[in-house]
User: Fold this.
Amino acid sequence: MSTSVLVTGCHQPSGHSLARLAALLPDVRLWLAGTPDQHCDALCDTIRQDSPECHVHSVPPEDCLSPASMLTVSGAKLVLHAEGPFTQYAYQMAEACLAAGIPYIDAADRRAFMASFTGALHPLALKAGVPLICGGSTSSLGSALLDEIAPQFNHIRDVRVTVIPGVRSLRPGSQLATLLSTVGRPMTVLRNGQKIREMSGRHLRKLSVPSVGRCSSVLCDMPDNETLPPRFPDLETLETRLALPGFMAPRAVWLLSHLRQGMQEERIPHPRGGQRPLTAAEQARLRRGQRTMPWLLKRLAHGTSHAGGLIVEAHGDDSMGRPLTRVSSLIASAPEAAYLPILPVIALARQCLEDRASLLPGAYTTPGLLPLRSYMAESKLVQLLLEREARRTQTVPATIGNETPSKRPVPQTQRTPAAV
Assistant:
């Protein structure tokens, strides 16, 4: 018997990708929800062609206004929530699932949203016996990569997490758009055992990544800043960074950081010392600069690699007290990279469908729930989906470099030990 699964946010890139993968899960009846203005009929037609074994329906637009209405219409037994932006305390869908006794899994990728989720909902979810799981996104993969190399350490002191999103994904709700929304805003980072204030989008650093090429990275506020320190109590320094390929695109992000800071503070340095207020003309120029930055990023990244993934670098000491450095990376070529961030949601959804009792009741975040192999097992669904799409469109899926479609690699973990 099929299980009704509701996928929200299907009008956004992450929800669109999540719905297409969820349709390949066994014995599901899929309900897709967008907004009253952006319904999901076209996506339903695409899924029916790529996944004819799945029964898929669209939630009527008038019922997309209320989480409770979406649950009633769909008769959902599981909710996969991907409708961003995930702002702090915006837990209406999770609260509706809690009231209805329905398991909830989201693809949240905002630090504030994840930081407050457990405290806001855990006591009620524990009492009701309902699992509410938050953060099935890149932060889960980063934590799983760190778990892979953690047994080699006696103590982990420093960690750097670098995310490389697909540069072309600039639509609202995409991974890159979410990361860029934090640029130019203050963030709290852990450095030398102290929490200090930094500005997101600063501190350019060069790096070279196989299959991606030369990149530069900047500081970027991510959920890992909240989820990793409690799991690794010896951690003294933690950096989360956004990397973009090429020379100009990362520097455009750096410029965006300064533009946004100027708009927030509405003051600029005065040549004679101190600061002076912005004039109306200067404010107008800053606003124009902010509006054109996404377009500029896309233009600057034209022709570069669109592979994506993440890199986790850890420093500490081994069981003998000797310094130790390990790097664990997960890089996928285009178009597989677009599906990487939502693999944790699919893995947890599969586990819930197979055995709901395996998910403990309560409200908690995903890092540490499943090992990396559980997430990467779902990459087979990505390969199957792309093969079906290629047959439907009678085109060859895009690849990187000289790789042929038949040899396109499934994303794998790469561990590259550095010199001790």
The first strand starts at residue 3 and ends at 8.
